[in-house]
Design brief:
By secondary structure, the chain is of the alpha/beta class. The protein has a single domain, classed as Rossmann fold. It is about 30% helix and about 25% strand. It is built from 6 helices and 12 strands. Strands 6-3-1-7-8-12-11 form a 7-stranded mixed β-sheet, sandwiched between helices. It has a 3-stranded mixed β-sheet with strand order 2-4-5. A hairpin with a 2-residue loop joins strand 11 and strand 12. The longest helix is centred in the N-terminal third of the chain and has 13 residues. It is globular and about 35 Å long. About 5% of the residues have low confidence.
Length: about 190
């Protein structure tokens, strides 16, 4: 079991995140030695859901505006319906995701989390997976959608649901272990600034 003791992983979530899609990767990463930091829109505790029922709460460490992407090695975007649907309306969240991608850092999105990758326009030509109800959205954003527990394409790992947390997190850890020393990555669909 690989250890990643010098890694810092950022999780971005708000109310309505699927409980195990945040707590599961967080637990696995911490057991592997990574520091895991949670950022949200505010520092007030955020409420999980377990399917449609209320779940645990957790207090974020930082607000999105306090995050410096240079301080982190990877990003996780949990699902739940309300969580990514709320976050994708915040330009600072979308810009943060784009920055991680430009820097070539691993980004993991599970369940409905890939909605945020759609909003950041990161899926053109990528192979991904997700919760079944958003797969058309992913296809319409230019992705090739397949049905597997965890799918890695470049620096992006996607997954389907809470049952896939372990293979999802392991795929993300594989990327973290092999992060190339890259300043900025420009994708073919990105217009130069």
């Amino acid at each position: 079991m690989p250890q990643i003791p010098n890694s810092r992983v950022l999780i971005v979530a708000t109310d309505g995140f699927e409980e195990w899609e945040l707590f599961g990767p967080r637990e696995i990463l911490q057991k592997r030695g990574a520091e895991v930091v949670l950022a949200s829109l505010k520092k007030d505790p955020i409420q999980a859901t377990v399917h449609d029922d209320p779940g645990k709460t957790i207090r974020p460490d930082l607000t999105i505006d306090e995050v410096n992407p240079d301080d982190f090695d990877a990003l996780i975007l949990p699902g739940g319906v309300r969580n990514p649907d709320t976050l994708r309306l915040h330009g600072n969240v979308v810009e943060l995701i784009k920055t991680f991608d430009r820097q070539g850092k691993p980004i993991g999105a599970i369940c409905h989390g890939p909605w945020l990758l759609v909003e950041a326009d990161l899926l053109r030509g990528r192979t991904v997976t997700s919760w079944p109800s958003i797969r058309t959205d992913l296809r319409n954003a230019g992705a090739n959608v397949i049905d597997q527990a965890a799918v890695t394409d470049g620096n992006i790992v996607t997954s389907r649901n809470p049952d896939d947390v372990e293979p999802f997190t392991n795929a993300l850890i594989d990327l973290i272990e092999n992060i190339p020393e890259v300043e900025e990555i420009r994708h073919p669909n990105e217009v130069p600034a």
